[in-house]
Amino acid sequence: MISFNTNSAQDLVLTGQDSIVTSSWMVGVGYNFVDDSDGQFKGLFNIKENWNALAYPSRISIGRYFKNGLGIEAIGTYNKFKVGKIVGGAVNTTETDYLGLDARLSYDLNKVIGETGFFDPYIGVGLGYTDANNQSMGTYNAVVGFRAWFTDRFGLDISSSGKWGMGDAGNHLQHAAGVVYRFGMEKGLSNKGLRKLALINETQRITDSINAAKKAEEDARLLAERMAKEKEQARLAAEAAEEKAKKDAENQRRMAIVNQVKALGHVHFAFDSAALSKGEKERLDKLAVIMEANPSLTLNVSSHADARGPKEYNMMLSKKRVKNTIAYMVNEKGIAANRLEGEALGETQLLNDCDGTNNCPEADQSVNRRSEFEVANF
Q1: CA proximity to 97, closest of 139, 137, 130, 140
Q2: Which residue, among 190, 15, 19, 198, has the nearest Cα to 110 in the 3D structure?
Q3: Which of 164, 189, 214 is the last residue of a domain?
Q4: Which pLDDT value is given to residue 39?
Q5: DSSP conformational letter for 199
Q6: Domain count of the fold of the chain
Q7: Residue 130 burial (10 A CB sphere; 0-12, 13-18, 19+)
Q8: What 3-state class would DSSP assign to 92?
Q9: Who has the most CB within 10 Å: 119, 280, 333, 342?
Q10: Predicted pLDDT of residue 191
Q11: How many other C-beta atoms lie within 10 A of the C-beta of residue 87?
Q12: pLDDT tens-place string over residues 223-280
């Protein structure tokens, strides 16, 4: 029976740690160490006398590794038999090259002993070609080693191979240590991931059962709610009627304010002037009283010019007029600037037919030199 702690919800989420690499390509580079001391694999750890090595990386490999644990690898190594080392049972007196080309079939021991996390032991067999101590030979190879993975892609590879020469050729050992890189990876769930997936499925099954029981309870609750809702709707209808009455009263108040603003009329200017006369300031004083009595009231202020003179000049003049109108309200009457939105319209909105083509008296022309006020928000 699967048990779980519902308080540990984070344990019921599959993460990257629940997966393992099941197949990949792998390349490696590192060092190789050759022991050709006596051909009988004696003195395995007599590194000083028996092991030959180079100071630079001398091994390269590439391989393909499959889901069933098998891997096919090709390996190239280079080394030198150093003077003074034991080679073939005697002290070597001449430095000679060592070249090895090997192909091997390996098997991942995790398939037998179970997953071991970052530790990946393996064994393998193969064939190779070796040119060593001025002698070329084919070899039968056997290997044992392990890889330790720092990440999914990078790891350390350490191995030891026994190489038996075909025919009368000699035998020797070759050890290797280097880094490996995996690419073209396929992943699958680890044993831990599979157990977690089973736990997730079991949790979902239990959740579905609980939800089914809750649904029956919910249906009964919905019936009761429907009856309560009908009662609530009746109450809301009464509230809506009351709210409508309030809005109607508010609209009536708004219209009263709109009518008060309209009743003040327009602020007018003298010909070719943006200055506010004493009388027009008194009109603005009255407008300020209305705005002070209604703190949420905002106005659009538009200023105009008559049609005499160039259009560009009239537009400039109306900009000055709207600026002076708002400045008086803000600076002299203390109205917040964000409650007044200004717009200059020049001679684009004349109130009569004095468009420059008719000979209009001054009284008609003055009608167009104005600042108008419109309620924006209340």
Answers
A1: 130
A2: 190
A3: 189
A4: 62
A5: H
A6: 3
A7: buried
A8: coil
A9: 280
A10: 72
A11: 26
A12: 888 888 888 888 888 888 888 888 888 888 889 889 989 999 999 999 999 999 999 9
Residue corresponding to tokens 């609750």: 221
> How far from the centroid of its chain's Cα atoms is residue 248's Cα?
51
The verdict on 111 and 135 lying in the same domain is yes
Q: What is the pLDDT of residues 107-130, one digit of tens each?
A: 999 888 877 668 999 999 999 999
Does the residue 1 lie in any domain?
Answer: no
Do 28 and 178 meet the contact criterion of CB atoms below 8 Å apart? yes
Q: Does the structure show a pLDDT above 80 at 33?
A: yes
- 253, 278, 298 — which closes off a domain? 253
Which residues make Cβ contacts (< 8 Å) with residue 129, sequence separation at least 6? Answer: 100, 101, 102, 136, 137, 138, 139
Two tokens at 150?
A: 């720092």
369 shares a domain with 272: yes
Of the pLDDT bands very low, low, confident and very high (cuts 50, 70, 90), residue 9 is very low
Domain presence at residue 81? yes
- Residue 222 pLDDT greater than 50, yes or no: yes
Rounded to two decimals, the pTM is 0.52
CB atoms within 10 A of CB 196: 20
Domain containing 35: what range? 12-189
